[in-house]
Amino acid sequence: MTGLIQVLGVIFGVLLISVGIMESFFIRDQRLHRVFLLQPDDVETVRLWTFNLGFYNVIWGIGAIAGAIALGGAEAAAGEALLMFTCAAHVALGLILFLSERRLWGNAIAEAALPLVIGVLLLV
Fold first, then answer.
1. Distance separating alpha carbons of residues 33 and 39, to the nearest angstrom
2. Which residue from 95, 17, 97 is spatially nearest to 59, judged by alpha carbons?
C-alpha cells in the first residue's frame, strides 16, 4: 500500500506545482480566466495575489512530494506526517473554497478529492 500512497502523493504534488505555475506565470492567458473566474479587466488587479498564491501551491506540492518520498525511506513516520498534513490542509482548503465561492465547486473537488483519498489510505 505504501507504493500506491507514494505514487498518489507525487501525483498530488505535481498537480499542486502545475496549478502554482499557472497561477504565478500564466494568469494572463485568457484560457485560464474561466478556471479562476477572472474577467480580463481584473487580471492586473489580482496578478500580485495570484503570483504569491501560485508559489504557495508550489511549496505545498514540494511538501507532498517530499512526504511521499520519505514515506518509503528510513524516516517513514516523518514522511507520513508531512504527507498527511499536506493532504489534510488541502481537504480543508477545498472545503473553504467551496464555501466561499460555490461556482468553484469543480475546483474545490479537484483540490480536495485526491488528498482525501491519500489521507484515508494513510489512516488504514
1. 7
2. 17
Each residue of 59-96: b (16+ CB within 10 Å) or e? ebbebbbbbbbbbeeeeeeebbebbbebbeebbebbee
Give the pLDDT confidence score for residue 35 in this predicted structure: 84
DSSP H helices, the chain, are 2-25, 30-33, 43-71, 76-100, 105-123
Residue 116, C-alpha cell as written in the block: 482525501
Query: Could you tell me how many residues make up the chain?
Result: 124
How confident is the model at residue 38, as a pLDDT?
Answer: 87
Which pLDDT band, with edges at 50, 70 and 90, does 67 fall under? very high
Distances in Å between the Cα of 106 and the Cα atoms of 21, 22, 28 are: 19, 17, 21
3-state DSSP call for residue 29? coil
